[in-house]
Amino acid sequence: MPEQEQLLSRIRKGDKKIIQELVEEYKDDLYNLCFRMTFSRFEADDLFQKTWEKAIKNISRFNGKSFKNWLYTICVNSHRDVLRKNQRLKRLGGIDFEKNKDKEIAMSLATDGLTTEDIAAKNQTKVQLVSLVNQLPPKYKNVIVMHYFQELSYEETAAVLEIPQGTVKSRLNTAKKKLTNQLSEIADICDSPMEERLYAEYS
To answer: Which of 87, 194, 94, 104 is nearest to 138 (CA)?
Structure first.
């Protein structure tokens, strides 16, 4: 992949091949993020497409720093817009949110190579933890996804979410406490720190 300065130069010159190169370079990372934010194949596909559409349309606005972080920011903002729209529809009674999230997540994990027996016998805690992460308020879920799932540093997470690093650390601590408390209620005991669990489950 070209250096960021070269990338920015090619974008400014209207190099049409650069779009294809960018999609090829970042498609896997972006789809991974889309799925981990939605835990739904259908919603991830939709978010993936919307993110690329917005990125291509606004490519001239790329600031020349990290393209991946810029792309992630577009993805996060696009997902936030979808959540707001869904909340409005929910208030108007236009969408049904009564779904079994644990079942959906378990099935998603199964499509990633885990058998139903594996999930039932060996991955119950993992399913529970992923479900709990998915139920966190967006501001806490997003920092968990970026820092643990996508393995971004505090600085990179702050850049993507457009918040101070101190806020990232504060939200991570709050999110881990919430997860620890909720998982402890389910399993009666949390036998390892939440940070270790998150790294173990998503590495």
So the answer is: 87
Q: Are 195 and 176 in contact (CB under 8 A)?
A: yes
Pair 60, 18: CB distance under 8 Å: no
Cβ–Cβ under 8 Å, residues 127 and 109: yes
- Predicted pLDDT of residue 115: 46
What are the Cα distances from residue 43, in Å, to 31, 54, 81? 11, 16, 13
Q: How many CA atoms lie within 13 A of 104 on its CB side?
A: 17
The whole-angstrom separation of Cα 142 and Cα 46 is 18
Best CA proximity match to 82, nearest among 50, 41, 40, 130: 50
Q: How many CB atoms lie within 10 A of CB 116?
A: 11
In the chain, which stretches have pLDDT less than 50?
A: 1-2, 89, 92, 94-95, 97-98, 106-107, 109-122, 188-189, 203
What pLDDT score does 108 carry? 52
What does the alpha-carbon distance between residue 110 and residue 123 come to, in Å, rounded to a whole number? 10
Q: Which residues contact 105 (CB under 8 A, 6 or more apart)?
A: 39, 127, 130, 131, 134
pTM for this prediction: 0.73
How many percent of the chain have pLDDT more than 70? 69
Report how far apart, in Å, the C-alpha atoms of 19 and of each of 16, 43, 82, 187 are: 6, 23, 25, 48
Cα distance between residue 48 and residue 171, in whole Å: 25
